[in-house]
Amino acid sequence: MTPRSGPVELAYDDVGQGDPILLVHGFPLDRGIWRPQIEALRDSYRLIVPDLRGHGETVAPEGVHEMAEMAADLRGLLDRLGIETAVVGGHSMGGYVAFSFFRAWPERVRALILVDTRAEPDNERGRRGRAEMIRLAQERGAAAVAREMLPRLLSEETLEGRAELAEEVNDMMVSTSVPGLVGALQGMADRPDSVPLLKEIAVPTLILVGERDVLTPLPYADRMHADIPHSRLEVIPGAGHLPSLEAPEAVNQAIRLFVEQLQS
Ligand code: MLT
């Protein structure tokens, strides 16, 4: 068994002033997916936007990258920055990490933002898919994984009409290291069921989902909305799995309104 690496120091942006919002990207992406939110919200809030272990500019330790370990990395970052509580937002795998964070340290979470994610664990078919993707990464590298993922991440509309955006997303995926891909894929396959946690989430929660998301489509968001007591669900028109980049204005507006209401 590969020894655990212990907490990893994350590369991150820390911009703006005000109530802290921690934004966590999905797989196999990096903190660049939150660029429009950083630009739009930095005047009103402090945005902490890290690269998870094995992604972007953060090192990839050998072995499995469990969601709980990624959550511990985030806690280490908040501790280093002297931040006691934050609004915690996660996109897809970042949502799985946000669930782990909440499970371990609910007192550090002021509110949750769950973007195109789900509470259910992988089923048998899902785990087989992960194993195939791990093989693909090991045998043919990140570019092959990116080729598989890109059409599932973006809506057809985005893919056909916004070549620059598709290239930007592809570049993020291609620069993820193989240990980063493999570690996260195995970590996602092993992740716990967060469905029982949903009813325990006592903090206000904003759930966003792209109207055309095929990876974590609307029924997953509906399930979270039904079970999380103080939750609001918003469907982002025209977006696929990556609304923070595909429909930034709608996402910015939803986050701004949600956080403003927390303060009032
Ligand atoms: C992600 O976008 O983080 C992943 O596609 C989530 C997953 O594969 O379960």
- Structure ligands: D-malate
Give the overall pLDDT as a whole number. 96
Q: State the share of residues found in helices, binned by percent.
A: 40-55%
Rg measurement, Å = 17 Å
Give the helices and strands as they follow along the chain: EEHEHEHEHHHHHEHEHH
General form:
globular
Query: Distance between termini?
Result: 50 Å
What does the largest sheet look like?
A: 7 strands, mixed
Low-confidence stretches: none
Total strands: the figure is 7
Give the DSSP E fraction (strand runs of 2 or more residues).
5-15%
Spatial strand arrangement across the major sheet: 1-3-2-4-5-6-7
Number of helices: 11
- What structural class should be given to the helix and strand makeup? alpha/beta
Write the layout of secondary structure elements.
Layout: E1 12-15, E2 20-24, H1 35-41, E3 46-50, H2 67-80, E4 86-91, H3 93-104, E5 109-115, H4 124-153, H5 156-161, H6 163-174, H7 178-189, H8 195-198, E6 205-210, H9 218-227, E7 231-236, H10 243-246, H11 248-263
Parallel strand pairs: 2-3, 2-4, 4-5, 5-6, 6-7
Antiparallel strand pairs: 1-3
Bound molecules: D-malate.
